[in-house]
């Protein structure tokens, strides 16, 4: 799969000296969905704004399908659609004129059939002659999406597109994302709903403090870094883990009625579970139930960021 966006050593330093991006390098494949995850203030929106030409980089380069965002801005930007976090729309303009105008801004000829298709897809066709100030917040968010799609971009950035919106719009949004991916559009998504990224992303990039911590196929990431737990529910609670089980690195659950044992998913059959269960019984503990739990993408993300913060504290 060819790369459609290439980011090399991208830095952004603001006038007051704050370094928002610290040499970010990232390649994005054509036709993929990349989830860009990071805590608040990590640099996600700055990175997107720089690639989209809203913010000028201090140094480094961004190439979009062969076009440099600085030296060939118009060609590069025409390939990009952006759904920003903030809703900034002209309140007295109508829905249909707003969307048509966005297409014209990119030098595209008028295409009423396409506009109707997009507005219908977003449940906006019946509102096409309504002024934007008359719409709910969720409907205005739909207009932002329509504006981003109407010039037929090949790369679509979605910056927290479902933050604070209703369940119906979230469902519509992901259906549109799946349709666009099927049409070959590349999608870069930031979201606080990590379960959404886990459901639809092909790859995951984690950014923190202006630096990319990792970029990995989602399935490989969860397989390599995922942790499984076996939770042994006891018939009767205990106040402490028996000494005979001290070699298993067990945690005692709140209430004393659960033993929690974590193991690496890469360990194959040598997980130690069989020996553990035998030794639990030998210690005189009666099992009530046994369950297993797999790490989610959210667990992995939290662990990565925590490890990075711990590393910085140790270096300070």
Automatic annotation (TrEMBL):
Molecular functions per Gene Ontology: ATP binding; ATP hydrolysis activity
Q: PROSITE patterns per the record? A: ABC_TRANSPORTER_1 (PS00211), ABC_TRANSPORTER_2 (PS50893)
Q: What is the lineage of its organism?
A: Bacteria, Pseudomonadati, Pseudomonadota, Alphaproteobacteria, Rhodobacterales
Look up keyword Transport and say if it applies: yes
Q: Which Pfam families match?
A: ABC_tran
- Superkingdom, taxonomy of origin: Bacteria
Domain named ABC transporter: residues? 5-234
Q: Which UniProt keywords apply?
A: ATP-binding, Nucleotide-binding, Transport
Q: Which Gene3D superfamilies match?
A: P-loop containing nucleotide triphosphate hydrolases
Question: Is DNA damage set as a keyword in this record?
Answer: no
This chain's protein is named Multidrug ABC transporter ATP-binding protein
Transmembrane spans: none
């Amino acid at each position: 799969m060819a790369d459609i966006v290439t980011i090399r050593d991208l830095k952004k330093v603001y006038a007051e000296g704050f370094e928002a991006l610290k040499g970010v390098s990232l390649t994005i494949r054509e036709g993929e969905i990349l989830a860009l995850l990071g805590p608040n203030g990590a640099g996600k929106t700055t990175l997107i704004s720089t690639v989209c030409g809203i913010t000028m980089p201090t140094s480094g380069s961004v190439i979009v399908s062969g076009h440099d965002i600085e030296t060939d801005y118009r060609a590069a930007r025409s390939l990009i659609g952006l759904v920003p976090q903030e809703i900034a729309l002209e309140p007295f303009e109508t829905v249909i004129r707003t969307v048509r105008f966005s297409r014209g801004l990119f030098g595209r000829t008028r295409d009423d059939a396409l506009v109707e298709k997009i507005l219908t897809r977003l449940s906006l066709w019946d509102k096409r002659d309504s002024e934007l100030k008359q719409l709910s917040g969720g409907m205005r968010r739909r207009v932002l999406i329509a504006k981003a799609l109407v010039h037929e971009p090949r790369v679509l950035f979605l910056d927290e597109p479902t933050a604070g919106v209703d369940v119906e719009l979230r469902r519509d949004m992901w259906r549109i994302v799946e349709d666009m991916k099927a049409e070959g559009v590349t999608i870069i998504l930031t979201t606080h709903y990590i379960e959404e990224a886990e459901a639809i992303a092909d790859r995951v990039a984690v950014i923190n403090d202006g630096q990319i911590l990792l970029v990995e196929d989602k399935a490989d990431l969860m397989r390599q870094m995922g942790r499984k737990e076996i939770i042994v529910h006891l018939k009767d609670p205990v106040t402490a883990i028996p000494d005979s089980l001290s070699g298993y690195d067990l945690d005692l659950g709140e209430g004393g009625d659960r033993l929690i044992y974590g193991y690496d998913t890469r360990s194959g059959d040598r997980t130690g579970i069989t020996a553990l269960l035998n030794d639990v019984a030998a210690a005189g503990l009666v099992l009530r139930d046994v369950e297993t739990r797999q790490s989610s993408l959210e667990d992995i993300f939290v662990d990565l960021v925590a490890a990075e913060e711990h590393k910085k504290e140790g270096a300070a």
